[in-house]
Amino acid sequence: MSMQSRYRFTYAWLPDGWHRNVVISVDPGGDIVDVSADDTVTAARMINGTAIAGMPNIHSHAFQRAMAGLVEQRGGEGDNFWSWRETMYDVAGRITPECLNGVAAQLYADMVKAGYTSVCEFHYLHSPGDSVAEHSHEQRLAMSQALMDAAMTAGIGLTLLPTLYQTSDFGGAPPTERQRQFSMQTREYLDLLDALRQSSQRSPQLEVGMALHSLRAVPPESLQMVLDSQRDGRVIHIHIAEQEREVQACLERTGKRPIEWLLDNAPVDRRWCLIHATHATAAELQGVAAAGAVVGLCPTTEANLGDGIFPMEALLEAGGAFAIGSDSHISLSPIEELRWLEYQARLARRQRGVLTDGTSSGGALLWQKACTAGARVSGRSIGELAVGKRADIVVLDTNSPLFAARSDNSIIDTFVFSGTSEAVRDVMVGGRWLVQDRRHFAETAVAAGYKRALQKMFKRDRL
Questions:
Q1: pLDDT above 70 covers what percent of the chain?
Q2: How far apart are CA 257 and CA 263, in angstroms?
Q3: How far are the Cα atoms of 50, 120, 169, 463 from residue 111, in angstroms, in the given order?
Q4: pLDDT tens digits, 341-390
């Protein structure tokens, strides 16, 4: 019989609420096989802290971590998402598979230390920036492999989302010179998906979904062809309605707003994650909620880019689901994303406690909703401390002064609204302790690889 590992937690937040003396048993494959609450007799390794489910990060562009903090000098009157995008293209043009691996490994290790235990990588860097020839299948595989290897190095669970990108705007405008690195033909894209799916079947820590970059970058006929050939696809992500300019262009070209067009023309269902949806109408959000799709929100990036404020109350009133991501990685903290979801709503309404239901802890409600929906659009069995789920466990240091004299019900409120990543002491992912006493097991080697990658990328410049 295979040996299980058993861990006893002082407190744990289970699907039905807080419990003391919780023993969680994990099989050698990294799945939870038993959860025993109020258990004072089972022999288990004592973990002196509070266990909560790890958070899925549903939207990442790993390479953009290399530019965090480099685009904060005002670039003239019209400094906005579109001017930021030019710097992003410049950074993308410096990335080789080796550099991508070094940047992503550091990023993923830092995510784990902050309480993210899995990540959806929205991956459109399909060829090295220094490539001059036509992009080959081998180059595309090498760029994807760099991310899979980085996730393995850091230990994080990965949903790789190879991304289709073909045009620079609505109406089939060809990609610009700087966008060629992202683009491929539909047949090439489907071949890449097939190859990656075959290689992913060996690991419970890896899932391959798919992403459509945006309606402006994927013509309707390509979108249709991909969806027709991928009816059994686990998860489908798309950037949508992030910018007012994009909404206007879609209206002019199709007579419909982006989300409205998508709901009318694609089989949107529970597998779909609509990233940003910043400029959505209440009617569109009702349609999204009715379809069962998840809205993927990245408040720190959306604020950093000046996108606008997502109408969160309209989504919740429609019964819709949301998850969170760190997108451009100017912040790597799940609590900061959740905090800003609530704070944006407070600023818009000039009231407090806007997103809570009035009966439970606001922080806990946000954490739970983001975990549940995030698990669904990750396509992996994660998101709660329950039998059959991956053993993705975040241990809060409730012995620290931050949590002094706090009752069970205020632990997550305290963590989300006044904590920092320092409150995360230990992190288990897929049954492995990756972070113990705030140190990631591979952080020294990972940091050296990251520094090498950035020195190589920016050797022409003084930062």
A1: 94
A2: 10
A3: 19, 12, 33, 24
A4: 999 988 888 888 777 776 678 889 999 999 999 999 999 999 999 999 99
Is there a catalytic annotation at residue 239?
no
Q: Which tokens belong to 198?
A: 């075959």
Instruction: Pick the catalytic residue from 123, 276, 329, 440.
Output: 276
Place of tokens 């600023």: 347
Contact 194/182 with Cβ under 8 angstroms? no
Q: State residue 292 phi and psi, 5-degree precision.
A: 85, 5
Q: Is the pLDDT of residue 75 over 90?
A: no
Q: Note the pTM of the prediction, 2 decimals.
A: 0.95
Least confident range from 27-31, 129-133, 301-305, 442-446: namely 129-133
Rounded CA separation 342/313 (Å): 10
Give the torsion sign (CA, 448, 452, 455, 457). negative
Break the chain down into helix, strand, coil percent, rounded to 5.
Answer: 40, 20, 40
Taking the C-alpha atoms of residue 437 and residue 234, their distance in angstroms, rounded to an integer, is: 35
Report the pLDDT averaged over residues 431-452: 98
Q: d(Cα 250, Cα 118) in Å, to the nearest integer? A: 33
Look at residue 361 in the predicted model and tell me its pLDDT. 82
* Catalytic-labelled residue, pool 123, 237, 279, 327: 327
CA–CA gap between residue 309 and residue 459 (Å, rounded): 37
Q: Which long-range contacts (CB under 8 A, 24 or more apart) does 87-90 make?
A: 88/64, 88/328, 89/178, 89/179
pLDDT tens by residue, 137-175: 899 999 999 999 999 999 999 999 999 999 989 989 888
Helix (H) or strand (E) holding 269: none
Q: How far is CA 152 from CA 32, 192, 374, in A?
A: 20, 20, 20
Residues in the chain: 463
Whether 276 is a known active-site residue: answer yes
Question: What is the number of other CB atoms lying within 10 angstroms of the CB of residue 206?
Answer: 18
